Structures are given as structure tokens and as C-alpha cells.
Prior knowledge:
Chain A has 17 helices and 13 strands. Chain A is an alpha/beta fold. In chain A, strand 2, helix 2 and strand 3 (72-78) form a beta-alpha-beta unit. Chain B has two domains: 2-46; 72-303, MetI-like (MetI-like fold, Orthogonal Bundle), CATH 1.10.3720. Chain B has helices spanning 2-46, 63-69, 72-103, 110-122, 125-135, 142-149, 161-173, 177-188, 192-200, 205-216, 218-233, 237-243, 261-271, 275-303, and strands at 49-50, 58-59.
Amino acid sequence: MKKLSGRSRALRATACLAATAAVTAMAAGCGNGAAATSGGRTTVTFDYLWTGTEAQKLQQIIAQFNASQKQIKVVGVSNPDMQKQLASMSSSNGSFDISDNFGNNVGSWAAKGILAPLNSYMQSAGMSTGDFIQAAMDEVTYKGQVYSLPIAVHDFELVYNKTEFAAAGISSPPVTMQQLATDIGKLTKVNSSGQITQLGLGNPDTGTTLTTLGYAFGGTWDGPHNDTPSPQDPGNLAALNFYTKNITDKYGASNVAKFTAGWGQYGSPQDPFYTGKVAMIIDGEWQPVMISQNAPHLDWGVTDIPYPANDPALKGTTQLTASTLFIPANAPNKQAAFTFLKYLTSPSAMLKFSLALGNLPARTSLLDNPAFNSIPHFSVWLQALKSPNVHTLASQPYSQQYSTDLAAALNSALLGSTSPVKALAGVASQAKSYGTP
Amino acid sequence: MARRDLMARRSRTQRRQLLWGLAFAAPWLIGFAVFIAWPIIASAYYSLTNFNLFQSPQFVGTANYRAMAADPVFWKSLQNTLYLTAVGVPLTLLLSLGCALVLNLPVRGQPLYRALVYLPTIVPVVVTGYLWRWLLNVQYGYVDRILALMHLPQPDWLENPSWGTQAVLLVTLWTVGGPTIIYLAALKNVPRELYEAARVDGAGAVARFRHITWPTISPVTLFQVVVSVIAYLQIFTQPYLLAQDHLNSSSGGPGNSMLSYSMYLFQNAFVYLKMGYASAMAWVLFVVTMAVTAVVLVTSRRWVHYGSR
């Protein structure tokens, strides 16, 4: 056999190295996310979307759980990137065991097999859902299986600036939609050039404000069984007509758009509600904490969403959304993750979590807990959860696309590009294709 | 016999060299096969399926392509993209050529001016996008303030559906520094003796540009047209940043006026998880891009002049 020269050997070695490196690089992408242990304890990776102060408070709750455990160690990782969260769940072996998201994604993700069903774990642990707020449980249940559990819920009420109310000669917040319309008129200011300088009712998020108003007018966005898009429901149309008639049509869609373009960032000291540019907003229970941080001198109040005077049965209407915890179908340590999930949704941990973040608890037994008295005006949002008129947008496979189409259509109506009737009809037309590939 | 031995030895050497060559090229070859060629082939198959990334694809034939034909948002995104391409490409060429001609003049401080024109190109596009969101704000943006000083109308760039696409165009044209530098290099290569001869013959500046500069740089113009067409047909980052109203949102701007084809493809793939539909959209974009490029190349025979021919 012919011997290779030194140069040839070097060349061959380099070539082999290059080929091996290529194969190794490929193989590295196929790593196995097998169950991890640390000091004899199973490591559970909790990948959550919360950041900043909220993440710090969550880490304290994780530390308390770890201190109480000999079997499991939870490692919390703040990761606010939803795309990364999804990408991680698409591989055969997941990189985390438990995570959080909003309840409106549950149906879509459950239908695609992304989430691990929790019924069997709950049965084994003797866990009941009877204490959880029903609307929140409806959102996390898909085809009879629970795929996620709510750690906190959110509802929407009418938040108002008391100083601006007094300046406009309004002695009490509106109770009916008719009073709301009158107050919007009194609280909207236009200067001599025709430019708006203050808006009676602001709109932190078009989709949320108008879907909540839709419920308040007796509408439904997902049909009678909360499983089919129904954008053209008469209540929804009444809500959109109310908004356009009292705001965008009355003061000019272009003028309103121009005024809103100058608003500061939501939830910052420049937030238009905090600076007095907006007198009322329909917003969630996080406002007390945000106001104390960003506008401590603001004199504000909160009241129920007004109802149509001719339909008092709609009093106390609100929209609920849920912050939920789930275990991905590809989680390496599902059983240990469920033990932690059960702890986080237990009344004591949920109370700590809700108080720390200024969110509403997802358990009815906590709604009257005096610990919440420390948060200003929080009771209005808490008590609203007891109303029979608590609604949630459906959590179905179509929900994400429906939400995008609805937001685009509602924006078009508010910009005056199309009429409310045509905007909602357009969404109904698009909704027909949601079931197709 | 000796000749056969020689040929066999040569053949062995060639085979050995081929194997070594392939081994050295293996990292790139495997990378290309796995990360480029295979996804392209796979996407062609996925475009004929109902696939959500998490479950096995279900074959649906041409249903995704038929659904596209009936999807108004698809048509809106295509319309926006074709408009941006039809208006953006000529404007990009015009502006970059104009800048290159000015930057080619023998004036003092020219290197500084060239650097200034190129500067926006090296600023990260996300920074540029957010800067323009502020500049185009109808309440406190400088663009409308300058227009007001000139007694011109001040559009609601980011709020009015009629102006959304123009805002995207404006932000995209801000980075003409790249094409300008390419044109500048082309202008430097135009033989001076041609200008001198034309001047002797009494040709003015316009005639010199028309009969010398333009034909000489026409191969570069063809390159710029092809590259710009592809860039505009795939435009994503600028409209995505201008239209975004909050984190992780999938907004298309007012009345979907900023929704580009690639943005809608992204929405379908990564927000709605409709990978089959998104793959079909990718293939339609590929076909449209190939068709437009082919038209440009075929027509180029009439207006592109190569000095060697």
C-alpha cells in the first residue's frame, strides 16, 4: 500500500475535518431535551412572557416554591418573544416545561396539538376547577378538555378623570349609554382652529374597546355558543355606530386620527389619560398600579361600563380575558410541571401573584379578599367578575385571524374609510374562509 | 498499455481530487442542501397541503391557491407591493443616479458628501423605521412641519389609508445610498476621452449624458433594476415597523395600506400558523419575481449596451 506524503496526509485530514464539522454542525441541531435533574431534584423550566418588575415578583414566588420542595426545582426564564415560544414548541423535544400566554390562544393551540391536556393530571391530583371563574375556564377549555389554567384574569371598566368631570360640570359618572354619549360631548374640547384638544372617550386599544362596547350593547362576537364568528350581530353594529356617531363622525375621523397620533405611549407618564388629553377610557384592572407609578397625582375614578337605558338587564357587562399557564405537548417534565402549575394556581400563590402584579385573581373565593383593599378602586373590577354579564371572546382555531381582521375593519370604520355596516360585513365575508387551509 | 496505465492513473488522480474537493466543500454543500435546497423543495409540497407546523401536513391539492384567489387581503397586499415596485424602482434609480451625478462633480468636500449620502444605508433598518415613525407623526413630526413652512398640505402619513403606502415609499427611498455608490463607481468608469471628443463636437451636457453616460452605464442600470425589483417585491421590514402598533402585533397599518405581500405571508405563516397557505404565497411571489425579472431581461436587449459587442 502506497504511503501518503506529509502534505497529502494534512490535506486529507483537513478535508475529513471539514466534512466531519459539517455533519457535526447538522447533528448539533438535533439535540435531545431529555428530563434534567439538579442535585437529585427534577428541574422544571418556566419560560414566561412577563418582564421587568412583574418578572422580579414572579421570581420571588418561584423561590418560595423551590424552598418548599425537595423533588422539584423550578428555573424561571423571562422571555417575552411569542414567536420564540412557538418555535420552541414545534420541535419534538421542548426547551421548557411550562409557560404562559393569553386565554384566547388556547383553542387554536389545542387544536394543533401544541398543548398538553390537563384533565388526567388534575384528576390524579384531585384538583377541581369549581372555584375558578367560569368565563375563564370556558376560555381554556377546548372540546371538553382543559388545556391551560388561569393564573389571573382581567376585565374592563370605565375609568374617568374626576378633575375633568368637575371642570365640565359633571357630578357623577355615566350609568347609561345615553349619559355616556352626553358626557363624551361635554368632555371633548375643540379649539378655535377646529382641532381637538381633549377627547371625551379615548381608545387605548380599538379591538378591546369596541368588542367590550359590543357586549355592552347586547352583542356577541362569536355567536350564541361562542364558537362561530358573528361580527354582524346587531349589538356589535350598535356599538360601532355609537362610537362613530359620538366621536369620529361628530368631530371628524381625520381630526380624531390627527389628535390620537400625538398621544404619548400607553402606560407611560405621557399616556393621554394621565396627561388629561383623554377624559375617559375603557380599560383593565392594571390601571391602579400603572396610575400610581406614572401619574400619582391624577384624581380618577372607575365605574361599570354603561348600559343602554332601554335594556337594564345589560347592566354590569364586561369583557374578561385570562392570563393562563400551560404545559406544552413537548415538555420534557410534564408531571413535575403540573405540580408547579397546581402550586401557582393555588389560592395562596394566586393571591400573592395577583397582589404583586395588580391583576385580578382567577378564583371566585379570592374576589372578596381584604388584601386587595390596598389597591385603589380595585373592588370595581373585582366585583364586576360576579356579574352574570361577563363575556369572553371565543378561544377557537380561528380566533387569531378573526382578531386581526376585526381590528383592521374596526380601524377602517373609525378612520371613516368605510361604514360600520360594510366594515362588519367585510369581516363576516372573510370569516367564511377561516375553516379552509 | 503504457497509455492505458497513464489514463488510469490520471483518472484515479482526478477522482481523488474530486473527492477531496467535495470534502472541502462539504460544509457549504450540506448547508445549501439542508437549509436552502430542501426547504425550497419542501415548500413546494407544503403549498399543496394544510400544514400548521405542529401536525402532519394534509394534502389538499390546489386549495391554497384557490383560497388565495378569493382572499381580499391577499389581493390588497399584492396591490400594495406591485404599487411600491412600480413607483419605487423608477424613483430609486432616478434618485440614486441623480445623487451619483452630483457626487461625481469635482467640488471640494466631495468625500464628505458621499459619506453623508451613504450614511442612512448603514444605520440599522429598525432604528431608521422608528425614527421615521417619529418624523412622520402628524402632530409633532418634522416632515409635516417642513411642509407647513412651504405652505404645502400636511398629510396624516401613518393614520390615513391614502398615505400609508407613500410613507413606506418615503422610508425606503431614504436608503438610496447603496445604489448611488454603485452608480458612482459606474460613472467613474466612463472613458473621459468620449466626453472630450463630444465636447469638441459641440455636444452639451444633456447630449453628453444621453449619448455617452446613459448607454455606458446601462449594464449597471440593468443590474440595479433587477436588484431593486426583487427588493421591492420582497419588502418587509420598513412597512412592518411603520405599521406596528404594539409588540407582537400583526398590523397592516390604516386600512391595510402598509400591508406588503411579505408581511401577509409572515402573518399567515407565523401568526395564523397556516404554513401551507404561506408556502403557496411564497411560490406565487417566486413566479411573479421570475416573470418580472424575465421581462426586464428580455427588454434590456433594446436599451442595454455592452462595450465589447
